[in-house]
Amino acid sequence: MNAENLHQPFEIVYKETDECLKPAHKHNFFELVYIIDGSGTHCINKNKFEYRNGHLFLLTPQDLHKLTVRTTTKFFLIRFNDIYFKSQNEQANSQQSEWIKKLEFIFHNTTHSPGCILKGMNDRVLVKALIDGLIKEHINKDPYHQEIIHQMVNTVISIVARNLYIKLPNKMRYDSNNDETTLKIIHYVQANIYKPELLKGEQIASAFQISVNYLSEYFKKHTGETLQNYITNYKLKLVETRLLHSDMRINEIAFELHFTDESHLNRIFKKYKGISPTGYRKQVMFDRKMVVAATA
User: Fold this and answer.
1) Could you tell me which residue ranges the HTH araC/xylS-type domain spans (predicted)?
2) Is it the case that residue 190 has pLDDT exceeding 70?
3) Residues 149 and 127 reside in one and the same domain
């Protein structure tokens, strides 16, 4: 499957359609998808989400996604890549440069759960106002509209980074004193979570030129947990996402995430979560029904 490329720091796109935009596809850049109006389903890496007005989705490079339109939908897209971060940094003073480094770090190390990334009402209101302003500038093309669009895009991206940062584990929070190698190991694990042959201690130690006998001790020293425990917890987070947002069967999830079989996944999940995957899915569905009933 070919991935789309972006040959400029960023671009904005406004679309209105009552049809699916295109088949499932990937990008080699970041994309923010804002739903101005309409409804449908957004599938990201096999996880399905119902979308509606005001939802904002983040797609990271190599995410596989597809939008299925139910009612006529207006989208606003902001696409940006590594060139965006580099160009921003070249124009920044020392204080701004530190912020750009934080932005780049957050986007490249995000462990976001697929779905709307705006959790607070204040940010939802703020982003809606910014998107409305971007559309007007994009359409009217008044004097200096490009400069204003650039600044507004910067602000939207900063708000998204704030929402991502809040959900980053403490051990991955940006800090100029953080151990860079540990953060790179975490990023390596996330990038290769579907490739168990690359997650063996020998492979990771070789990739980062650390003694295989010292690797686990080194990782625990900087994160407070063993490397194997981190890998297991990250896989279980992906299991939870599939249980909540897909109709995949337990054996399919086990196969995708390279558990030995369904019983292996059941055993590990119950050990760490105190409940079986099936029980977890049923409990969440029950809780959702109770919330809907309470607000009806």
Assistant:
1) 183-283
2) yes
3) yes
User: Which tens digit of pLDDT belongs to each residue from 57-75?
Assistant: 999 887 888 889 999 999 9
pLDDT tens for residues 226-264? 999 999 998 998 898 888 878 889 999 999 999 999 999
Q: Are residues 129 and 233 in the same domain?
A: no
Query: Is residue 190 located within the same domain as residue 235?
Result: yes
Question: DSSP per residue over 141-154, as a string?
Answer: --TTHHHHHHHHHH
Q: Give exposure, 52-84, as e/b (b: 16+ Cβ within 10 Å).
A: eebbbbbbbeebebebebeeebebbbbbbbbeb
> Which one, of 88, 94, 72, lies nearest residue 16 by Cα?
72
Scanning the structure block, which residue is given the tokens 């679309």? Answer: 15
